[in-house]
């Protein structure tokens, strides 16, 4: 654990979150759908060692794209579940400040439907959701929302934010949500679960 973590207390209004791999357990849905609907059953979460899963799994790109398209179009129908602790922590955060979710997904409505299914109405009312459509377009939205911290499972996004911070007057501290696909790909501060995130917050 980074020593700064022990004293860091982040205001809920100053931190934002990616969706997939941080709030939504998209990897579990991908693994399940790959097996149940396409008969690719010989891999587990630990085997997804690259963000682009086709780079590390012996699955045709066409199948990968079909699975992710189904998830993006209807996360509820494909059975995407929240990461353990995400609903509880975010709901607690929304009681005192808006919570910003900035996702690279291109479609906002399926995400809103998913959030409304799993989160209390009171929490959803205080969630600010942005669907950018591109991984590399998150920085400007993070700035617009006045965020100082951002949690993402994509190491490349966090590294980009760290580089941009060096050239701006509004520093962003990226935190990598630990997943098999970001191991060994960065030297940034990381968090392993929502209990760790909760411990960092000034709630």
Folded structure, characterized:
- The protein has 203 residues and is α/β, with parallel strands linked by helices.
- The chain has two domains: 3-25 and 82-200, Rossmann fold (3-Layer(aba) Sandwich); 26-73.
- Helices cover 36% and strands 12% of the residues.
- The chain is built from eight helices and six strands.
- The protein has helices at residues 26-38, 61-73, 86-94, 109-118, 121-124, 138-144, 155-165, 194-200; strands at residues 15-17, 99-103, 127-131, 149-152, 173-177, 190-191.
- Strands 3-2-1-4-5-6 form a six-stranded parallel beta sheet.
- Helix 1 crosses helix 2.
- The longest helix is centred in the first third of the chain and has 13 residues, at 26-38.
- The model is unreliable at 1-5 (pLDDT under 50).
Which word captures the global form?
globular
Please, what is the average pLDDT? 94
**Count of structural domains:** 2
Radius of gyration equals: 17 Å
The CATH class of the largest domain, by name, is: Alpha Beta
Strand content is 5-15%
CATH topology of the largest domain: Rossmann fold
Helix proportion of residues, in percent? 25-40%
Let me know the CATH homologous superfamily of the largest domain. Answer: HAD superfamily/HAD-like
Tell me the total number of β-strands.
Answer: 6
* Computed structural class: alpha/beta
CATH architectural type of the largest domain: 3-Layer(aba) Sandwich
Q: How many angstroms separate the termini?
A: 21 Å
Question: Total number of helical segments?
Answer: 8
Give a short account of the largest sheet: 6 strands, parallel
Low-confidence stretches: 1-5
């Amino acid at each position: 654990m980074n020593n700064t973590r022990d004293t860091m207390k982040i205001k809920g209004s100053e931190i934002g979150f990616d969706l997939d791999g941080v709030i939504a357990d998209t990897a579990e849905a991908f693994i399940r759908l790959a097996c149940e609907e396409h008969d690719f059953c010989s891999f587990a979460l630990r085997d997804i060692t690259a963000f682009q899963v086709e780079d590390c799994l012996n699955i045709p790109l066409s199948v990968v794209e079909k699975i992710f398209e189904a998830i993006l179009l209807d996360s509820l129908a494909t059975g995407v579940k929240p990461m353990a602790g995400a609903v509880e922590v975010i709901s607690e955060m929304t009681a005192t400040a808006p919570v910003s979710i900035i996702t690279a997904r291109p479609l906002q409505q399926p995400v809103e439907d998913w959030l409304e299914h799993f989160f209390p109405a009171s929490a959803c009312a205080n969630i600010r959701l942005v669907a950018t459509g591109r991984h590399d377009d998150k920085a400007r939205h993070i700035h617009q929302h006045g965020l100082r911290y951002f949690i993402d499972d994509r190491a490349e996004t966090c590294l980009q934010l760290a580089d941009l911070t060096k050239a701006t007057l509004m520093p962003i501290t990226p935190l990598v949500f630990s997943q098999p696909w970001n191991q060994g790909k960065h030297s940034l501060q990381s968090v392993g679960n929502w209990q760790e995130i909760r411990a960092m917050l000034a709630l």
